[in-house]
Amino acid sequence: MTTIKDIAERAGVSTATVSNVIHGNTKKVSPATIELIENLIKEMGYVQKMGLSVLNNSSSKMVAVVIHTHKNYEDAVISDPFYGTIIGFIEEKLRLLGYYMLLYSTDDVNEVFRTVMAWNIDGVIALSFSRNDCNKIWHLIHKPVVCIDAYGISHDDTPVTNIGLDDSTGGALMSEYLLQCGYENILVCATNDYGVDYSRWTGAREMFEELTAGNKEKKIRLINIGETQITRESFYQQLLRQIPFPTKTAAFFLSDYFAIEAISYLGSKGIRVPADLGIAGFDDINYAHLTVPKLTTIHQNMERKAELAVTELLSAIQNPIYMGKEVLLDVMLIARDSI
């Protein structure tokens, strides 16, 4: 394996000079020497030992991607198609820009705080945290932090950026579409009543109320389906007992994963979607077009979300006076066969 000493001997310079070029400390190194050393690094196949840059105070080229898991997962968090897709895009874009990803997920936010403080990272991409927790990460490490789908209200002016989604409009689009399709009873199925779920529910409810103008024959309800497979199956069994519904009913799941699970469970019990019950989702994950029937859903561009998170983080790393911002990406309705 090629070492710094090997490169120094070929270049006829000290090992300190080679090390300075590798780490970007080139104020006292001539352009010709820099070019010579960089060419030798490529020619001789030198690979920097990441452990050394992580332990010292130089740029580690490492970004922590941390996930605050709110759901109970029977498998790993990245088995969720949403998180798996986002993480995949983030890793790809970081790698292409010469950065490495440290991935950490937990339901204990204090563990996240300890982890980001323990490593010499250049910045943090935080998924599914409250804005205040994202701000706390910045206060603990004073390094750039970019959030994806942060929720709540920020109580200080830290330079933290959030890459989110126009969730309220997504809920409104689906509510409008379901009414246009003749549904009179809409069950909005969520795992909690805060964060993006709350925004999606609020948008759906407000649009429904605007379009029905107080028509008491048409109803929209928020249903908490729980975070475990057992609680969700209990909900599906309740649906079974109500079929056939007295009015045309649709279940609007605020996550494609659970909409797909419902289609599978109900189909195994002989329920026809959409003839007996309409089912819709939110996110347009990779599996949404593979279900039978194919899932009607709200599309979000997950690759664009990941790309913006990486771009904004690197801008903050390179710019000491970077100011935080709020970015909300557009959504669109994808009409398929489950409605």
Automatic annotation (TrEMBL):
UniProt cross-references to SMART domains, sorted A to Z: HTH_LACI
Domain HTH lacI-type: from-to ranges: 2-57
Top-level division of the source organism's lineage: Bacteria
Classification via Gene3D superfamilies: 3.40.50.2300, lambda repressor-like DNA-binding domains
GO molecular function, one term: transcription cis-regulatory region binding
InterPro entries: Cro/C1-type_HTH, HTH_LacI, LacI/GalR-like_sensor, Lambda_DNA-bd_dom_sf, Peripla_BP_I
Record keywords: DNA-binding, Transcription, Transcription regulation
Domain HTH cro/C1-type: 3-47
SUPFAM superfamilies (UniProt xref): lambda repressor-like DNA-binding domains (SSF47413), Periplasmic binding protein-like I (SSF53822)
Signal peptide as annotated in the record: none
PANTHER family: LACI-RELATED TRANSCRIPTIONAL REPRESSOR (PTHR30146), XYLOSE OPERON REGULATORY PROTEIN (PTHR30146:SF24)
Name recorded for this polypeptide: LacI family DNA-binding transcriptional regulator
